[in-house]
Amino acid sequence: MADDLQPVEAALTALLDGVAPLAAETVPLAVAGGRVLAKSVTACLDVPPFDNSAMDGYALHHRDAGKWLAVSQRIAAGQSAQQLQPGSCARIFTGGEIPPGADCVVMQERVQERVELDGERALMPTDIPAGDNLRRRGRDVSAGDVLLEAGQTLNPAALGHLAGQGITEVSVTRRPRVALLSTGDEVIDPGQPLAAGQIYNSNRPMLRQLLEQFGAEVVLAERVADDFDATCRCLADAAARADVVVTTGGVSVGEEDHVKAALTQLGELDLWRLAMRPGKPLALGRLPRTDDSTARFVGLPGNPVSSFVGAWLFLRPLTGALLGCPALNELPRLRARAEFATTTQARQHYMRVALDFTAEGIGARAFRDQNSGVLSSCIQADALAVIPAHSEVRQGDEIDCLWLQ
């Protein structure tokens, strides 16, 4: 590995050094989907709050199996049950409260019914174990249990879990604010006519969506002119407004690449030039604010595939650290069978692959063109195959893949 190229692991360590979760805020449960819990939540109620029936049928005591029983009450969901009279059963519906004195439920399809002068009767089957078809109080959650841990993302099931406790507000970590700056006079926004030598900005919408998917809030999205003073002004303004400043392009060594020099003048360059492909010219650093705090800086390459890969490898864990969400800190890693062959030199390669899940295991199909400018290779990519530096992969070899989840 060349001396001036830093490993990805060193870059992650530098990026996350000193990063702490942001402050908490309280939001209504109705809009808390996808947010990250700032504090653990303790259950105040048992779930379910009472023994109830798992199906439509008849509640009885198991010792009365095989008998004709009088139907002494009818219990629908939401109704209060009465003490079960000896030698009787209760007609009960799914979710209905189990009456005191009953210890099982028989599904209605197994019961023979008849109407007599003194009311309804039901013949019970002979094989009824105690506890059959009951959902016991506290089966899911007991009061005093930790309902959800801090750092957990509120997915639909978690929201339902909170609602089941009667919770209407929840404490979540503030979303990281991100400034997204695009450099290069040749890059223009879609909707404008292209002049000679110009290209449309594909990085901005891609990175905005990824950042929001990771849990961040993009508060600023601007284009920066290829001018040193203008770049300095934009970086300073972005740092004042955001927790993270992300740039695309401008971190290489060309005469019009001003971002690295501006970062060095305004703040600190922690690390530059990584031993990875794609994404070698990637800069990490810090920008000062007027309140003596710092904004984290991530300078992604201008090539769209390099930005895509860099976002997953660096912006995702940085967002996770700011949210206090451990699940975001590291991409899920799995082993797969390479359905391709390749060799690497001084840089670790992150290849875009599609995964095939079969009875024989997981196969990884690499997209034919792995050039950093071929964004189409990212559209159907399920994972990044990690190919270490100075290695050879033959078809059928086992490889590590980072699942893009």
From TrEMBL:
Record-stated family: Belongs to the MoeA family.
Keyword Magnesium found: yes
NCBIfam families: Glp_gephyrin (NF045515), molyb_syn (TIGR00177)
Keyword vocabulary terms for this entry: Magnesium, Metal-binding, Molybdenum, Molybdenum cofactor biosynthesis, Transferase
A cellular component term, taken from the record's GO annotations: cytosol
GO function term, MF aspect, one: molybdopterin molybdotransferase activity
Catalytic activity from the UniProt record: adenylyl-molybdopterin + molybdate = Mo-molybdopterin + AMP + H(+)
MoaB/Mog domain ranges (all copies): 179-321
Keyword Metal-binding among record annotations: yes
Origin species: Halomonas salipaludis
Co-factor(s): Mg(2+)
One annotated GO biological process: Mo-molybdopterin cofactor biosynthetic process
EC number: 2.10.1.1
Pathway per the UniProt entry: Cofactor biosynthesis; molybdopterin biosynthesis
Enzyme class: transferase
The name this protein goes by in its record: Molybdopterin molybdenumtransferase
Alphabetized InterPro entries for the sequence: MoaB/Mog-like_dom_sf (IPR036425), MoaB/Mog_dom (IPR001453), MoCF_biosynth_CS (IPR008284), MoeA-like (IPR038987), MoeA_C_domain_IV (IPR005111), MoeA_C_domain_IV_sf (IPR036688), MoeA_linker/N (IPR005110), MoeA_linker/N_sf (IPR036135)
Chain's role: Catalyzes the insertion of molybdate into adenylated molybdopterin with the concomitant release of AMP.
